[in-house]
């Protein structure tokens, strides 16, 4: 039972950063932006979270700075891809490498270390105990006591669904992706919708990054986003951008993450257990491709 | 009557050096239907796009009710009461009719929520007011082109637009759908709306308009009262010379069957039948015209013949060789193919002219091979391109220029030349003159007729009924994936084919 | 057209260097001294230049791999994975084979290419059989290859005497010899550029690859075998990336050390993008990027600026050059149009 609860909790914390980044990506997906910069935004977010938490002495500052850093990257994306009309794919690749470069550089410059910065001075984002619910056997240990960011992620999932499918903003956002020319001719600038979607993506990826360095673990490591941005992109593609579908897929990836940790307990080499989420992505892509093919043939 | 809109000395140059409008001045009166006619590329659409704020003019001014205006985007134009329906209808297929109409001016409730009931009610109101007949809950991808056009017009009326610009609205409609549109337009005019109508079809312009402005090569030629002119005069002004609307087809009896389709069926991924029991023969020395409203299976038929899509059942053969399951290269040994979309299927716009001219030949013609087929013989490729350009009168800056630097007519000449030089027994033409100017159309028609006299079997798909009647020996009509008629051209009329295209059966049945 | 491309590159590089200078100024460094040190340790003098060229090899090869793939419409982003797999296979060969150098060196290079081909082949087959997009598949395979090689050098092939994960040194007969200051690995790079250019511009298949990259439907309708071409490009570009990895081992540390792949392959992808998938341009930018990376290490010795600034500088270079390319072209066309309109008016 303890292993089971551990697995579930591992799944939830593994899913959270992917979910947050993917929800950001959902907005750009609907707005018709080929956004592959989630990886970089998350990484910068993670760095700035540690920066804020360590120097300003509060995890709140950490989250604030994470959003700030990630948004800065989103603004560069906007400047190049929306403003100067540079290819989105190129912009995304360059930004991911820029994120890797700037965080490595600043890690060296500010914290005077290479590779990893870990320090008791980094204040983590707290876990939240929900009274009453925490007393329920088994379920209480899962529903209560999770990191604050986990609850925020749940809230944001619902909020994303609401924004995209129930509001005027959502109608226009999806219109920008389906047919930008139509939206423009109806007097709403599709370029602005893309800008908004990227800003939202920036905020969500900032949160994802903050969770990585102040929740999932309590340190900053070079390239610590480790492909999670790409996995979140895969998650979006797999469910055609539906926020609730993204939540489910993220849990699946989180499960493979948790499974990897569990297997490590059984003496499996760490390198192989670390591969599990990427293998899981490949398997998910396989099922997606098979389904798409069946649809085409039928 | 006062001038509602005056456009003065408008100049527009498209990068790098295409002069689209050359000092054009024109005025429009309140409550009139004013047609703007001209060939493709005469500048009609550009002029209207400038009025609508889609494209900025390089110089000149626009007056609306006597005041100078300049719209930077369509939103500003709509706010001032000017709306435009484009030639390519731009709607969001995934959205319903009402969602498309309200997009941009949606009624909302608290928290920015969409007020669905109110939106639907407002749309219904407009539909009742102008007596349009349309289901607001239908998804746009499921409705007909004519209905989509109504959605476009309703979108503008929903925004209380009083000046409507329509860019070639009839080009996507069947002969039977046009009167309904004209009725609706006349009703709008009688309600006080001003309608600017772009077209190159002279009869309908004469039938509908109060006044007509003729444009040619970026210049305005004249504005005339519709009641005081006729088709010949308009045509002369449009083209700058007398035009003959006569077929130059000579009598010639067709030979053996070259191209043969037997019981061809195609079911799409969504389970819908796209092609049903297609049986079709094309003989040598014969042009078969395939008419039909767009979206009735033409696209799928072409794809199946070319090997892009696999048929569910049936047989296709050329020269009595079965090619139903042959790889594309094998088909290309026997089929020359001119696609409807030059940039998507017929060429690579970014590659140079040589690269475009040698496609398919590079595999079928041994002279293109060096080192037993491993290397491409580039000197020969350049020579081949020169021969093609010479033979098909292609005007090009240089062989190594990118394909997109050529004008539409010259692009089509390269593609046509490339395909005809394959010297295949069967030629498949999909809208071979779409988007070309009159001179190029004539050239392409001549080449097609020449191939006919050489004994090729030709299948031509066209949305332009005039073209079909001008060239074909036999006319087939494709309706909902079925061939519903196969009639020699002498035994039919525009009206009969129009009815068949629309209803799938003759009127009297 | 060509001169415009050169102008574009030069302007882009200058703007990027200026932005880099501003960043240095903000942090209180002297940009002129920094750049001086940077290029002193990378371009001025035979030894620095030889080092720059040697370091350029993995950049140029993975750049060529990416450029060939992108120009052919194949989204092979698997260079990082293919590179480490190539390096691993070459290392294993170097540990167990014992042949005279004239056989050993080509043999190890071949093994490296096979490593890359195998890893690219996984993605190619997944696409061929199941129509799985190579884009995300290659990315995931990168991560898997990364962990796999780390496992291989941590357990089965670990140098027992070393404290951190690495293999023992390979047989010295597989070491690439030096000619003066220059490592012979450079010849592999120059050879690859020439051969690839020849493939792309003279081969019949190369013609089809180019056209497929620009408009695959047109190529398909024209009778090109898209599937076969995809396979060919995928395997060839995999071989290039694998070779890059093998050469890093054979020229440099002569063993597989953890983190060997570094960012070579991703930098290669960037270089291809900056070069707009041109093969010669990929070579030139590859050498230039290598100069920045190589010089940065020397620069660190005599200034206070950390060498990681090279990574920042690179990303800025990419963004600025690409953006200026597209912006400049559009602007030039607009200016020409306006001039034309003015002429009409008068």
Mind sketching the topology for me?
The complex is a heterotrimer of chains A (298), B (509) and C (346).
Chain A: H1 2-31, H2 38-56, H3 59-83, H4 88-111, E1 116-117, E2 127-128, H5 139-143, E3 146-147, H6 148-166, H7 168-178, H8 180-185, H9 190-216, E4 220-221, H10 228-238, H11 243-265, H12 270-297
Antiparallel strand pairs in A: 1-4, 2-3
Chain B: E1 3-14, E2 18-29, E3 33-37, H1 44-51, E4 59-64, E5 67-69, H2 74-79, E6 82-85, H3 97-102, H4 116-129, H5 145-158, E7 163-167, H6 178-190, E8 194-199, H7 202-208, E9 211-216, E10 219-225, H8 231-239, E11 257-267, E12 273-283, E13 286-291, H9 298-306, E14 313-318, E15 321-322, H10 328-332, E16 335-338, H11 342-346, H12 353-357, H13 361-364, E17 369-370, E18 375-376, H14 378-391, H15 408-420, E19 426-430, H16 438-453, E20 457-461, H17 465-471, E21 474-479, E22 482-488, H18 494-503
Parallel strand pairs in B: 3-8, 3-9, 6-7, 7-8, 13-20, 13-21, 16-19, 19-20
Antiparallel strand pairs in B: 1-2, 1-4, 4-5, 9-10, 11-12, 11-14, 14-15, 17-18, 21-22
Chain C: H1 2-26, H2 31-40, H3 46-71, H4 79-96, H5 101-130, H6 134-154, E1 178-179, E2 182-183, H7 185-202, H8 204-214, H9 216-221, H10 226-251, H11 264-274, H12 279-302, H13 309-345
Antiparallel strand pairs in C: 1-2
Helix pairs in contact in C: 1-13, 2-12, 3-7, 3-10, 3-11, 3-12, 4-5, 4-6, 4-10, 4-11, 5-6, 5-10, 7-8, 8-10, 11-12, 11-13, 12-13
């Amino acid at each position: 039972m303890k292993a089971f609860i551990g697995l579930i909790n591992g799944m939830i914390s593994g899913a959270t950063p992917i979910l947050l980044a993917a929800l950001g990506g959902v907005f750009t997906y609907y707005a018709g932006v080929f956004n592959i910069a989630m990886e970089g935004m998350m990484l910068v977010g993670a760095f700035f979270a540690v920066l804020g938490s360590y120097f300003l002495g509060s995890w709140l500052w950490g989250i604030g700075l994470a959003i700030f850093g990630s948004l800065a990257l989103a603004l560069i994306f906007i400047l190049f891809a929306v403003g100067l009309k540079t290819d989105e794919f190129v912009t995304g690749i360059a930004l991911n490498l820029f994120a890797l470069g700037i965080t490595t550089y600043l890690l060296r410059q500010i914290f005077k270390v290479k590779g990893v910065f870990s320090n008791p001075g980094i204040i983590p984002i707290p876990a939240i105990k929900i009274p009453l619910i925490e007393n329920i056997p088994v379920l209480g240990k899962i529903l209560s006591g999770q990191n604050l960011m986990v609850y925020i992620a749940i809230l944001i999932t619902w909020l994303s669904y609401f924004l995209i499918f129930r509001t005027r903003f959502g109608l226009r956002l999806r219109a920008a992706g389906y047919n930008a020319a139509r939206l423009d001719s109806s007097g709403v600038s599709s370029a602005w919708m893309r800008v908004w979607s990227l800003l939202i993506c920036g905020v969500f990826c900032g949160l994802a990054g903050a969770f990585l360095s102040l929740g999932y673990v309590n340190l900053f490591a070079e390239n610590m986003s480790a492909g999670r941005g790409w996995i979140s992109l895969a998650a979006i593609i797999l469910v055609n951008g539906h926020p609730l579908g993204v939540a489910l897929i993220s849990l699946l990836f989180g499960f493979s993450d948790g499974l990897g940790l569990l297997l490590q307990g059984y003496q499996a080499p760490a390198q192989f257990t670390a591969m599990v989420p990427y293998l899981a992505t490949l398997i998910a892509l396989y099922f997606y491709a098979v389904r798409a093919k069946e649809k085409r043939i039928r | 009557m006062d001038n509602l809109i005056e456009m003065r000395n408008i100049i527009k140059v498209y990068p790098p050096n295409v002069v689209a409008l050359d000092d054009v001045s024109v005025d429009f009166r309140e409550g009139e239907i004013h047609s703007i006619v001209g060939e493709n590329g005469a500048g009609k659409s550009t002029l209207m796009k400038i009025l609508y704020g889609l494209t900025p003019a390089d110089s000149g001014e626009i007056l609306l009710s006597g005041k100078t205006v300049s719209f930077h985007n369509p939103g500003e134009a709509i706010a001032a009461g000017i709306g435009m329906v484009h030639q390519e209808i731009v709607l969001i297929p995934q959205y319903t009719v009402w969602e498309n109409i309200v997009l941009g001016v949606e009624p909302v409730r608290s928290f920015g929520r969409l007020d669905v009931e109110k939106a639907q009610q407002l749309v219904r109101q407009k539909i009742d007011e102008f007596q349009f007949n349309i289901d607001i809950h239908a998804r746009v991808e499921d409705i007909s082109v004519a209905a989509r056009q109504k959605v476009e017009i309703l979108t503008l009326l929903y925004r209380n637009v009083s000046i409507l610009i329509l860019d070639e609205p009839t080009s996507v409609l069947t002969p039977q759908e046009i009167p309904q549109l004209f009725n609706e337009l006349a009703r709008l005019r009688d309600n006080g709306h001003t309608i600017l109508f772009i077209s190159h079809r002279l009869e309908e312009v004469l039938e509908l308009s109060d006044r007509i402005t003729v444009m040619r090569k970026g210049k305005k030629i004249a504005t005339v009262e519709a009641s005081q002119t006729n088709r010949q005069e308009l045509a002369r002004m449009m083209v700058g010379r007398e035009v003959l609307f006569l077929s130059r087809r000579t009598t010639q009896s067709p030979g053996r069957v070259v191209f043969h389709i037997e019981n061809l069926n195609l079911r799409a991924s969504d389970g819908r039948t796209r092609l049903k029991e297609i049986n079709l023969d094309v003989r040598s020395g014969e042009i078969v015209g395939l008419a039909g409203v767009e979206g009735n299976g033409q696209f799928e038929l072409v794809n199946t013949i070319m090997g892009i899509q696999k048929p569910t059942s049936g047989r296709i053969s050329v020269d009595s060789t079965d090619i139903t399951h042959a790889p594309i290269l094998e088909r290309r040994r026997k089929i020359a193919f001119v696609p409807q979309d030059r940039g998507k299927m017929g060429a690579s716009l970014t590659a140079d002219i040589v690269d475009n001219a040698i496609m398919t030949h590079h595999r079928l013609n041994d002279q293109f091979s060096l080192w037993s087929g491993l290397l491409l013989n580039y000197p020969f490729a350049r020579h081949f391109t020169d021969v093609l350009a010479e033979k098909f009168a292609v005007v090009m800056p240089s062989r190594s220029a990118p394909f997109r630097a050529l004008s539409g007519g010259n692009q089509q000449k390269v593609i046509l030349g490339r395909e005809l030089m394959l010297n295949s027994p069967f030629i498949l033409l999909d809208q071979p003159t779409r988007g070309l100017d009159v001179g190029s159309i004539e050239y392409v028609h001549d080449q097609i007729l020449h191939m006919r006299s050489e004994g090729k079997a030709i299948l031509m798909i066209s949305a332009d009924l005039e073209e079909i009647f001008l060239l074909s020996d036999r006319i087939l009509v494709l309706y909902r994936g079925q061939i519903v008629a196969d009639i020699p051209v002498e035994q039919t009329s525009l009206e009969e084919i129009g009815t068949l295209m629309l209803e799938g059966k003759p009127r009297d049945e | 057209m060509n001169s415009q491309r050169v102008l574009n590159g030069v302007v882009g590089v200058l703007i990027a260097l200026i932005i880099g200078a501003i960043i240095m100024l903000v942090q209180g460094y002297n940009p002129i001294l920094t750049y001086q040190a940077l290029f002193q340790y990378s371009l001025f003098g035979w030894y620095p230049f030889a080092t720059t060229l040697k370091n350029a090899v993995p950049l140029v090869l993975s750049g060529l791999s990416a450029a060939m793939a992108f120009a052919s419409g194949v989204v092979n982003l698997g260079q990082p994975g293919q590179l480490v797999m190539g390096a691993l296979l070459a290392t294993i060969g170097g540990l167990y084979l014992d042949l005279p150098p004239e056989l050993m060196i080509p043999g190890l290079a071949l093994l490296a290419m096979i490593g890359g081909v195998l890893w690219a082949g996984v993605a190619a087959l997944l696409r061929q059989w199941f129509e799985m997009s190579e884009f995300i598949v290659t990315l995931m395979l990168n991560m898997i290859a990364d962990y796999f090689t780390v496992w291989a050098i941590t357990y089965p092939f670990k140098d027992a005497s070393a404290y951190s994960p690495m293999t023992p040194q390979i047989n010295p007969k597989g070491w690439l010899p030096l000619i003066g200051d220059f490592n012979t690995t450079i010849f592999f790079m120059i050879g690859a550029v020439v051969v690839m250019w020849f493939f792309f511009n003279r081969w019949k298949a190369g013609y089809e690859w180019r056209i497929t990259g620009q408009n695959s439907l047109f190529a398909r309708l024209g009778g090109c075998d898209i599937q076969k071409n995809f396979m060919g490009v995928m395997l060839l570009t995999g071989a290039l990336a694998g070779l890059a990895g093998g050469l890093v081992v054979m020229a440099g540390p002569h063993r597989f050390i953890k983190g060997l792949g570094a960012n070579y392959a991703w930098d290669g992808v960037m270089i291809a993008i900056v070069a707009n998938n041109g093969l010669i341009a990929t070579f030139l930018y590859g050498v230039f990027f290598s100069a920045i990376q190589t010089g940065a290490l020397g620069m660190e010795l005599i200034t206070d600026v950390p060498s990681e600034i090279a990574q920042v500088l690179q990303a800025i270079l990419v963004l600025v050059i690409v953006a200026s390319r597209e912006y400049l072209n559009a602007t030039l066309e607009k200016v020409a149009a306006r001039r034309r309109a003015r002429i009409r008016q008068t």
